[in-house]
């Protein structure tokens, strides 16, 4: 699985198994990813940083959806 994020701070927080207060999404992602990998050890997860608003297909839509959440 490949995840692309345009926030470098968010990308690094996801790797922290004990994020700070206010980072519940990062904790939830880390827990869910760990459970997935435990059950599917033949798979890997990669998290990559990408530039925002630079023509990457789907990035603009993802940005709009994130703002609606």
TrEMBL record:
Transmembrane segments: none annotated. It holds the Pfam family RNase_H. It comes from the Eukaryota. One of its GO terms (molecular function) is RNA-DNA hybrid ribonuclease activity. Residues 1-69 form the RNase H type-1 domain. InterPro entries: RNaseH-like_sf, RNaseH_domain, RNaseH_sf. This is RNase H type-1 domain-containing protein. It comes from Coprinellus micaceus.
């Amino acid at each position: 699985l490949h995840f692309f994020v345009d926030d470098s701070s968010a990308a690094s927080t996801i790797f922290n198994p004990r994020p700070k207060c206010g980072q519940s999404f990062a904790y939830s992602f880390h827990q869910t990813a760990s459970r997935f990998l435990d059950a599917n050890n033949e798979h890997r997860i990669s998290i990559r940083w990408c530039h925002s608003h630079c023509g990457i297909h789907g990035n603009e839509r993802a940005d709009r959806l994130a703002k609606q959440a």
